[in-house]
Amino acid sequence: MNQPTPAIVAQNAVRRLPRIALLLLCAAYLLPGLVGRGPWKSADITAFGYMAELARTTEGISRWFDPMLLGMRPETPALIPYWIGAWAIKISPSWLNPDLAVRIAFALLLWGTFTATWYAVYYLARTARAQPVAFAFGGEARPTDYARAIADGGLLALIACMGLAQLGHETTPALAQLYFASHLFYGVAALPYRRAGPVIGLIVGTLGITLSGAPTVGLALATGGALYIAYERRRTAKLGADASPDDGPGYTRGALITMVCVVLLAAALVFGLGLQQWKITLIGNSLFGDIRSQAKLLLWFTWPVWPFALWTLWRWRRQLSARHVALPLWFALVPLAATWTTDFSDRSLLLALPAFATLAAFALPTFRRSALALIDWFNVLLFSSLAALGWMYWIAMLTGVPPKPAASVARLVPGFVPEFSPIAFVLALAATIAWCWLVRWRTGRHRAALWKTLVLPAGGTALCWMLLMTLWLPPIDYARSYVPQVRAVAERVGQPRCIAELALSRQHIAALRHHGNFNLQPLLLGTDCPWLLVSPDTIGRLHTIIPFDQWRFSGTLRRPSSPADDLLLYQKIPPQ
Fold it and tell me: What is the average pLDDT score of the chain?
């Protein structure tokens, strides 16, 4: 017999979240930051550099399977994300900036992640073991209405995750991995209810994440899904005639065969191409090294959904093997393990956010009203305070009053000259007014709905991101862009036929080629360029590499907000 469900939900608590409101919230989260900026340091500009190189390559199809940036392969040896960006550049009209074309393509990937997560939560909530308690005289939530309300809550929880804000708006392989992982999650969750869509999701998700720089994670997720399907079939076979007719559809033999074939195909791809050696490296001296920093990353990156997820595991502890708990738990644990065993901690943890959001959604039908009120008021105070601080510091940046906040901003972005933007002001003001209306609506007297608990976290996160990408976009772009440094290079050297480089990072190479359109050539391969850019990391052995009778030091070029990104400029001495 199944253990009783902890969810107690009446039909009036699962009323539909208006689709237009949900779509507007997703748009308010997706669109800010698309325009008005360039690629940011360092993964964003680096990934864009490889995409731009592929878009302009003339070496044939072989280069597309081995992306290069001035002879260097990417740190994240992916293929599909760079293909997506290169194709976006190629098919975009000439008047559209290449980096904007790539950001639009990757914004569609984030939209696809939202869609796949919503449907995954919906089909998990449709299962009988996830349904609420049946009332003695009726009135409990209908299965489809309950599943839709839980799915709305899951999408709101995903939008509310702090870790998604920046990484979800960059054009890096991590966002492509998130897209494919969410589709793999959807495929496993929806396979008992649908055929074509979930099968496509399984194939696209598994193979896509394998070729996007996370092959081991993708293979582990797919293998766990196959093992769970086998477990579910065995459990159903043991129940036999004792199984309830209300248990709903289960996994068929065809579903298990499909999942096994997908796993075998992914394994053949991983081991055939040697992809299993791409990313696995232990951090520190042991797997459990640097526990404090990893714990801090987990706490802030998955805020505010991790308390909800833990509450779900506690309240549904008697049903940990149920589909709606076991699957998201597995899809959260695998990226967590990757977080501890790779050098890309935050980008590995990004893949766990749809699963964390799913677990958070299933906490909603188990909360008491007093706990919900406490959560609501906490979110009102938190996001209202953050918005007020954002406005205050912006006014201080423009006017110099109050002086201390103005001095703090000037210290963070030295050399930045603020300007008032009417469009940014109007958009930020509209977002703030919408937040005030949302707070008033949420704290008003009206019928309860499951998803309302996560409306304020999602709306508050969207508000903060909107303020950052309107009021604060110019200083943020100034601080995180390489444009000021590349402009300083151009002012010194003009537009020479070529510039030699020595030990420059991938992000510097990509920035110099994109923002300055410079023809960079490695010094060690032999070149006759009149200028040389050198990374300060080589300064200890510089005298053994550069003949100083041929080169004259011309100055240090800095990014205003980051002295660690200095470049040393040398000019070639003409022969006497």
Answer: 90
Of 193, 166, 77, 195, nearest to 353 (Cα)? 166
Residue 406: closest CA among 415, 416, 414, 394 = 394
Overall pTM surpassing 0.85 (yes/no): yes
Lowest mean pLDDT among 167-171, 182-186, 247-251: 247-251
Question: Encoding tokens for residue 421?
Answer: 């933007």
Q: What is the pLDDT of residues 140-154, one digit of tens each?
A: 889 999 999 999 999
CA distance between the termini of the chain: 94
Pairing of strands 562-572, 551-559: antiparallel
Cis status of the peptide bond prior to 192, with omega within 30 of 0: no
Find the range with the poorest average confidence among 24-28, 494-498, 502-506, 561-565. 561-565
117 touches 110 (CB < 8 A): no
Whether pLDDT at 274 is above 90? no
Closest to 189 in 3D by CA, of 158, 147, 217: 147
At 426 the pLDDT is 97
Query: Do residues 418 and 492 touch, judged by C-beta distance below 8 A?
Result: no
Q: Is the pLDDT of residue 382 over 60?
A: yes
Beta strands in 380-530 (DSSP E): 499-502, 520-522
Record the tokens describing residue 209, joined without a space: 């994440």
User: Are the C-beta atoms of residues 287 and 341 closer than 8 Å to each other?
Assistant: yes
CA angle 529, 534, 537 (to 5 degrees): 160
Helical residues (DSSP H) of 70-195, grouped into ranges = 80-91, 98-125, 143-160, 162-167, 173-190
Q: Label each residue of 340-384 as H, E or C.
A: HHCCCHHHHHHHHHHHHHHHHHCCHHHCCHHHHHHHHHHHHHHHH
What was the pLDDT predicted at 371?
A: 80
Residue-by-residue DSSP string for 469-508? TTTSHHHHHHHH-SHHHHHHHHHHH-S-S-EEEES--HHH
Q: Give, in degrees to the nearest 5, the angle at Cα 470 between 465 and 473.
A: 90
In eight-state DSSP terms, residue 135 is: P
Sign, CA dihedral 20-127-191-221, equals: positive
Predicted confidence (pLDDT) at residue 561 exceeds the cutoff of 80: yes
Sign for the CA dihedral angle at 3, 4, 6, 7 comes to positive
- Give the sheet arrangement for strand 499-502, strand by strand: 520-522, 499-502, 531-534, 562-572, 551-559
CA atoms within 13 A on the CB side of 547: 6
pLDDT tens digit string along 498-550? 999 998 999 999 999 999 999 999 988 888 899 999 998 888 777 777 777 78
Contact 400, 480 (CB under 8 A): no
Residue 358: count of CB within 10 angstroms of its CB: 32
Whole-angstrom Cα distance, residue 274 to residue 362? 39
Query: Do you find a cis peptide bond into 408, omega within 30 degrees of 0?
Result: no
Distance CA(332)–CA(360), nearest Å, equals 12
- pLDDT tens per residue, range 457-497: 999 999 999 999 999 999 999 999 999 999 999 999 999 99
